[in-house]
Amino acid sequence: MSRQDILFTPVDLGKLQVKNRVAMAPMTRMYSPGNVPNSKNIAYYKARAEGGVGLIITEGTFVGHKAAIAYPNVPAFSGEDSLAGWKKVVDAVHEAGGKIAPQLWHVGGIRRPGVNPGGDEPGHSPSGMAKPGKVTGHAMEQADIDEVIAAFAKAAADAKKIGFDAIELHGAHGYLIDQFFWDGTNVREDEYGGDLAGRSRFALELVKAVRAAVGEDFPIIFRFSQWKQQDYTARLCETPEELEGFLKPLSDAGVDIFHCSTRRFWEPEFEGSDLNLAGWARKLTGKPTITVGSVGLNQDFLPENGFVEFNEAEPASLDNLLERFEKDEFDMVAVGRALIANPDWANQVQDGKFEDLAAYEKDMLQKLV
């Protein structure tokens, strides 16, 4: 056996069984004119499934709410045409032997009027802010909160109906759900604000609504992060105790798997322990976790002043990752740019063909199928 074989053992995530421990990380590509998945989207995901990925988590796909999206040509997860497109993606991935979950997304306050669908609708967020200290959009009222929660529940039910194997809720990176979590963008004085427990209320209600919509047996993945694209140094939790207080209610509400987003997977999350964020989440909740963050490459994935245009990077050693799997720190790893540069990255790694791995080059995310 080779050392990397640990990545290619089946993994039981409770309600989701996957053939190996390699996931595809969600990456926004803006490759869907009219917001409908097309033949290029189908080929893109099918190629990664054929290349050995066990679980594909799609690019962010926005739920059916009037202010859900901020970028053009992003695939929707509502409407007959978009869902029919996603059904073709699901069928292609299954045919190639993989499993797939859509990442359900609402951008919140990051939206600016003028992007369709949505037209002149401003960004919706807990306090009208996309980043601390500057009101640029609509502070959500109870009716807005109810509408967004209903949109997520409908999208989750539709995902199950058209054959997805799980869903992922995007609760990270300073988008809507995370804007409620973050004290920099949530200064509400009602039950949805205050301390982190209060700021978590929106997410807890959303998770419970999604659980009710999909039933008890359908897997719910929840992606969260400490960092925000508006502030890489932001932190929701400074101690393991705070992290437990944050994650346990989400687990109890219906989250089955935590996808723990970091910029560098190898970095310890708290002083006094080598565990990364996924390691701590697994230890504190007992739920399966997915780690992510510049896997297999020698440069962080985001420039200090950028989003979407990811940093170029060369292939790098997997030794640290494999050591953490050997210690049973987390359950899966999500791979991003390395899978853009190498659709068959998983098969190449399994076969030990490290010298054949290509570097990630500028603009590959948008240009490559």
From TrEMBL:
GO terms for molecular function: FMN binding; oxidoreductase activity. Residues 7-297 form the NADH:flavin oxidoreductase/NADH oxidase N-terminal domain. Residues 113-134 are annotated as: Disordered. It comes from the Bacteria. InterPro entries: Aldolase_TIM, OxRdtase_FMN_N, Oye-like. CDD domains: OYE_like_5_FMN. One of its GO terms (cellular component) is cytosol. Gene3D superfamilies: Aldolase class I (3.20.20.70). This is 2,4-dienoyl-CoA reductase. The lineage of its organism: Bacteria, Pseudomonadati, Pseudomonadota, Alphaproteobacteria, Rhodobacterales.
